[in-house]
Amino acid sequence: MSQKQRVGVTTYLFFIPAILCVLAILLYPVGKTIYLSFTDSEGLLPPVFIGFDNYQNFINDPVLRATLTNVLIWTIATLVLPVFIGLLIANVVSGVKGSAVYRMIFLLPYVLSGVAVGALWFNIFETEGLLNSFLVSVGLESWVNSWLLYYPQNTLSMIIAATWASTGLVVVLFTVGIQNVPLQTVEAATLDGANSWVLFWKIIWPQLKYIRAVVIGTALANSLRTFDIVWVMTGGGPSRTSETLAVTMYREAFLLNRYGYGSAIAVFLMILVTTISILALRGGLKKEATL
Amino acid sequence: MKLANKKMAVLTAASLVISSAVATGAISSANAATKVLNFYHDKNGWDVRFNAVSVGLKDGIGVTLKPSTYADTTLYQNTLNQATKTGKGPDLLTWWSGYRMVDGAKGGMFADISDVWRDAIAKGDVSKDLQKQFMVGNKTYAIPNGVSYWPMFYNKKKFAEWGLKVPTTWAEFEAVCAAIKAKGVTPLTASVDGAWPSFIWFEQLLISQDPKLYLDLTSNKIKYTDPKVVEVFNIWKGMIDKGWFTPGDTSFFGEEAVKLINKGTMIPVGTWNNSAFSDTGGLVGGKDYDAFVIPNINPALKTQSIIVEAGAIGALAKGKNLATSKKALREWLKFPVQAIWADASGDGVPNPKVPVADPVIKGLSKYVATNKVNQIQRYWESGPVPLIEGGVVILGAFMLGNKTVAQTTTELAALADKEWAAWTKKYGK
Amino acid sequence: MKKDSLLKHSVLVILSLIWLSPIYLLFVNAFANVETWESNFDWSLKGWDPIANFQQAWSVADLSPGLKSNFFYGILGAGLSVFFASLAAFSIVALNPKNKSLWFWVIYGVNLVPYQMLLLPLFESFASTGLYDTRWGLLLVYVAIAIPFAFFLSRNHMLSISKEVVEASQLDGANKIQTYFKIFLPLSWSALGAAFLFQFTWIWNDLVFGLTLTTSAEIRPLMSTISGLVGQYQSIKMPIVLCATLIASLPTAFLYIVGQKLFVAGLKAGS
């Protein structure tokens, strides 16, 4: 009884609900955006076809270099920092009693809304805010700075806020992964004389393959689309130095009503995210059994 | 006989029921005649005021408003652009005047309400002077949503405590700033929070130097690199270097403004923020705080100038209830509704017949009228949108010390060239 | 070993304190006495008034319709998306359709689209099809956007269900639907629960789609209502706003605490 024989119409019926939903909200928007990216469409005026002009202007835009640099910084930061810090914390948490409580503590920021996170950290980092008053109170007045007003410290400040909000999830995921490594494997390795470093890299790390894929998959998709925190805390400023690609797109399309140009940036961003996601996930995805 | 009585009873009861039903029906159909207009706005926090206006409209012409708040201004504007394109949207909407209306007027967002203005001016409900900023071509597209001045708000009690007087010359103004600074308080607010506030001091210093300079600059008759403009930038730089301004991430309206004014800082902000001082802050106008018109830098000028901001309320051209919407706009300008607005907003209103209740606004309006102070449109409404949006970013960088005066003016000039060219291409002159 | 444990605990305690300090800030300032509020976030507990602030936040911010809407969107949105995603994942994993990669990327692909790009065209199509400012319209958007990640999680988990189990059920004469409901669904329960939690949180905290695609108070989700509490023309004091934010965060926090076991089990079984 070959599997192949049993593949019938019903197999594909299982996809229908998901595909329908996805197509319903994606087809028109993505199609329209791609169409608009080849036009000069501003505000209420009808779109005028201009070929690849938008893409060309985008590549020549001086802000582009800064924007792409920020995207790179944000991607590395929101990928590496939560994963690295999360892994470190998870390593410690998984080895103690009451790990469930610690997991909850680190997860709390994740359940807060973006509005709350932005408002909190704005009040911490603003010039008249809590970080500066804290520094003054411990005698570190020389460290006082306008954290949100100048580049690159404003990007760094926002990365701190973003890391705080998202690391908790990574901690939980990795803690579960680490605690799931079979006890016998760990004990056997320890008996073989493996120190904790070797234990981690040679035994535990490979076992985290699945969790890693989940973590990286989410972190990637989110980091490349970094928008909320940047918009709330600095608006991409000052002078657009802390802008990320998503912010640039929002600014052109929404603020300046240059829908054609904004759409070109959106398409660019989409291609970028897709490429990187395919590259990163291909390694970590489990393959279905092939026959 | 009994049967006949019974029939009579039933008939009487029935007729009672029917007649009361008819009566109720009549009442409810009278109520049903109250038309509801959908009203979109981005002034979240003002629903209370708009509901008060709605009551006034109901009494006047049997129309009520159903306000919908859009907290995010950018999304609001885009939602309305889409509504204009699809024809599905509100009946009435808030917007901005001046250049910010042009896209909407030419793009079919707003209905032509020149007739509303004709009637209102004729009946003295609004001054003809206000009309220009709501016109595109020779048609008018919106009514004013309050008229706000941008004076300097100050702490009267602190002034008395520190022995300071309201300045009448620039030299006196500088002395006041220096004195406040000496007391350990930052004298003036300035901000780049949200990007837009950077034009506040830009426009203020320009009109204090020479209102004609400002008007020429914003109508592209002179360039940003003009020596007279550069001179103003240098004056501004001088003030920045003396540490007279609050840090760029300061918020200067609402409860933040109250905090700042209580310290003694002077705040240049629109009079729409007046209610924050009086209601939120519990300060008494004329006693705890007041406002003055900023003195001219150039002593040779004969009159002072003040920035004016007038928001707009328009009717969606493709709105289903256009006729009713226009009636509502006309009614909005009449005395009863205007009086409600004056009371609810604590700000100035377009209808000159409405007496101003708030002491600070009253004093300011009187000063402006008596001294024939020039009323100049805000920078925000005084140029093609991309120029203004890009301009405030450059001005913000200047304020933070990231660009020199030369860099700032050069970049602004280049941006102006680019955007005015695009504007001309789009709309002719 | 004991010393090691003590060291680990100390590190964790210190780290937790630093980690929680912004949340401490949130609580302290959310409960600060509104009368003496000085527009400055503070560390110290001046004037503790949680009940009054909660009451004010509830009435002033009018959170009731938003909360009701959020439960609707969260439960239905996360529930439906996880269900649809699991159906698709089941097919890809157990039923051997053609072009598996294609199906995977089409469904996962929604995750890769910058969501701002969707906003205006969605508004346009919603306005012309009458879905604008409707519960079902917004729900559809939430379900569609929540599917990819739920799909990702379900698929990864279902791959661990052994081939023998599948083949045994087929030998028993079970058709595909029965296999799904009787075998895969029960075995994936915890993974689907984890996916539900993730997506519920995302939908609960959404701001932009709510702002763009709805406008009435009864249809609008909670975060849109809350974002309307701050701004240039607003005069609500910060502690009340923070209190409203706290109220809005309670359900998700509660859900995670209660659902932790499920969450953990769901992720464990997949690795």
Q: What can you see in these coordinates?
A:
- The complex is a heterotrimer of chains A (291), B (429) and C (271).
- Chain A has 291 residues and is mainly α.
- Chain A has one domain: MetI-like fold.
- Chain A contains 15 helices and two strands.
- Chain A has helices at 3-6, 9-13, 16-37, 53-60, 63-93, 99-111, 114-125, 130-137, 153-179, 183-191, 196-207, 209-224, 228-233, 245-255, 259-284; strands at residues 39-40, 48-49.
- Chain A has a two-stranded antiparallel ribbon.
- With 429 residues, chain B is an alpha/beta fold.
- Mean pLDDT of chain B is 89; it is low at 1-31.
- Chain B contains 17 helices and eleven strands.
- Helix content of chain B is 51%, strand content 13%.
- In chain B, α2 (47-61) runs antiparallel to α14 (335-345), α8 (199-209) packs across α10 and α16 (385-399) runs antiparallel to α17 (405-427).
- The longest helix of chain B has 31 residues, at 2-32.
- Chain B has helices at 2-32, 47-61, 73-86, 102-106, 114-122, 156-162, 170-182, 199-209, 211-218, 227-241, 254-263, 274-280, 322-332, 335-345, 359-370, 385-399, 405-427; strands at 35-41, 63-69, 92-96, 135-136, 139-140, 143-150, 152-155, 267-268, 289-292, 305-315, 374-377.
- In chain B, strands 1, 2, 3, 6, 10 and 11 form a six-stranded mixed β-sheet that branches. In chain B, strands 8-7-9 form a three-stranded antiparallel β-sheet. In chain B, strands 4-5 form a two-stranded antiparallel ribbon.
- Chain B is globular.
- In chain B, α2 (47-61) links the parallel β1 (35-41) and β2 (63-69).
- With 271 residues, chain C is mainly α.
- Chains A and C meet through α1, α2, α3, α5 and α6 of A and α1, α3, α4, α5 and α6 of C.
Low-confidence stretches of chain B: 1-31
Rg measurement of chain C, Å: 23 Å
Query: What integer is the average pLDDT of chain C?
Result: 83
Discrete helix count of chain B: 17
Layout of strands and helices, then pairs:
The complex is a heterotrimer of chains A (291), B (429) and C (271).
Chain A: H1 3-6, H2 9-13, H3 16-37, E1 39-40, E2 48-49, H4 53-60, H5 63-93, H6 99-111, H7 114-125, H8 130-137, H9 153-179, H10 183-191, H11 196-207, H12 209-224, H13 228-233, H14 245-255, H15 259-284
Antiparallel strand pairs in A: 1-2
Chain B: H1 2-32, E1 35-41, H2 47-61, E2 63-69, H3 73-86, E3 92-96, H4 102-106, H5 114-122, E4 135-136, E5 139-140, E6 143-150, E7 152-155, H6 156-162, H7 170-182, H8 199-209, H9 211-218, H10 227-241, H11 254-263, E8 267-268, H12 274-280, E9 289-292, E10 305-315, H13 322-332, H14 335-345, H15 359-370, E11 374-377, H16 385-399, H17 405-427
Parallel strand pairs in B: 1-2, 1-3, 10-11
Antiparallel strand pairs in B: 3-10, 4-5, 6-10, 7-8, 7-9
Helix pairs in contact in B: 2-13, 2-14, 5-13, 8-9, 8-10, 16-17
Chain C: H1 2-30, H2 50-60, H3 63-94, H4 100-108, H5 115-129, H6 135-158, H7 163-171, H8 176-205, H9 208-213, H10 222-227, H11 238-268
